[in-house]
Specification:
Blueprint (H helix, E strand, L loop, with lengths): L7 E7 L3 H12 L4 E4 L11 E3 L5 E3 L10 H9 L4 E3 L6 E5 L2 E5 L3 H12 L8 H5 L6 H15 L8 H8 L11 E3 L3 H11 L4 E2 L6 E5 L2 E6 L2 E10 L10 E2 L6 H4 L4 E3 L2 E8 L12 E5 L2 E7 L8 E8 L1 H5 L5 H16 L8 E6 L12 E3 L18 E3 L12 H18 L1
Parallel strand pairs: 1-2, 1-12, 2-9, 6-16, 10-13, 12-21
Antiparallel strand pairs: 3-4, 5-8, 6-7, 10-11, 11-12, 14-20, 15-18, 15-19, 16-17, 17-18
The structure holds flavin-adenine dinucleotide.
The site of flavin-adenine dinucleotide has 41 residues, from helix 1, strand 15 and helix 11.
Length: 422
Amino acid sequence: MAGPGTNIVDVAIIGAGFAGLSAAHALRDGGASIQVLEAQEQAGGRVKTIQHADGRAYEKGGQFYCTTMTNVCGLVEKYGLTRRDVRKLPGIVAMLGGKRKLLETDFLEHHFFEALFAAEPDLPGSLLDWVLTLGLDDDGVAMIKSGCEEVIGRPIEELSYRSVRDLLIKFDGFDNTMEFACVEGLGTLAGLMAKDLGAAFCANAPVTALDRKNGLFHLTTPSGTVTARKVIYAAGPAVLRQIDWKAPQDQWLKSHPDHFVAGHMIKIVLRYDSAFWLGSDYGWLGQTDNPSGLSVMDCSDPKGGLDALAVFCGGTAARAMAGLSEDQVLAKVLDIIEPMLGPKVRTPATVVQTNWTDHPWVGGGYDTWARPWETEDPWAPMQRAHDGLHFTCAELAPAFPGFIEGATRAGQEVAARVLHKI
Ligand SMILES: Cc1cc2nc3c(=O)[nH]c(=O)nc-3n(C[C@H](O)[C@H](O)[C@H](O)COP(=O)(O)OP(=O)(O)OC[C@H]3O[C@@H](n4cnc5c(N)ncnc54)[C@H](O)[C@@H]3O)c2cc1C
């Protein structure tokens, strides 16, 4: 196994999610010597693929991408993986006040995002306060609240309008993020990118402390110390506390996580022997207001080979299931989605369930959000270098923040800044 050595590297990268991996590749290609230190046993972070006993690859985290996500498209192709389409038939089923309704509109896509792109940047109040100004009926508000809780992972009365808008406004430029998936899994892609780095990638190497002496960084891991001229911290601010920041100039990082909250999220993939819902009025999406934040999406391959639904329990829905066993969560979820899809939903051939809430190394899913702030946006200091210490993660992306594509772009961007200074 490659591991921390005694040599001094130009850049040490903490974290091998898509941001850290992309930074590593760009730095290596730019001629810098690097060492990537990943806490977990594999690369990928919030993207994780498992090989199931049924012979298929399942995505526990990030899964979907689209044509405008050009980096992800390019990487899937470069590493010889197989892109597949995702079925998205028209029609949304909503459970509202216990009644099943068919909706023609995806409220999130057509009301929330459209209005957000046209709205003022600095409105006071919570995201819910702003949604209530959109003039929607009760069903519309409930659907937006539930859809946002699924995407954001927090009840929308808990987050300021400004913190959400600042991030989501950079989403402009895609039509359908569910357009493609990868047959072998995007976690497999992360593994190949890590392998490509050779000895410069080190798994099972959590950085537990970081100090500075004589203009060099010293990173402590269980298997040794890495010394580097520069450091890129490539993980979300919610997990900054995993590191003991020892140098006087880094003390601000000890309290910085207080400014952020991570999303609550349970993802469950349900595979069936056939797509029994085809031909019914269920199109591609089911949503419920009770619990708010739960969505069920068709993630099948329209050409055959995989008939599956992905259930996302975000925000209130994830909180409602806190402390339950996987079997109890599954039973609850099946109770909730049966009225949308019918009794056959109770007999999946394969179930893959992952609870990302409070994950020790990524914080949660899908994103980390800034709490309401009074003066400086807490993301701002993470966009600057601090005497050779740089930050990157999907949330800091110049485009597609909070997405895998955003992570790749954020990683490339920080690498360009670091290379410029080497
Ligand atoms: C359930 C779920 C579904 C999603 N669906 C999609 C989707 O369909 N499409 C999409 O584009 N995006 C999706 N996302 C979001 C996407 O996965 C993330 O935005 C992206 O992967 C984040 O990449 P990152 O590199 O910024 O951070 P991360 O993936 O969080 O990577 C950070 C890495 O740093 C490591 N680390 C942290 N601290 C340390 C330390 N002290 N020492 C060493 N290593 C450390 C972590 O182990 C981790 O590997 C989803 C996320 C989740 C959770």
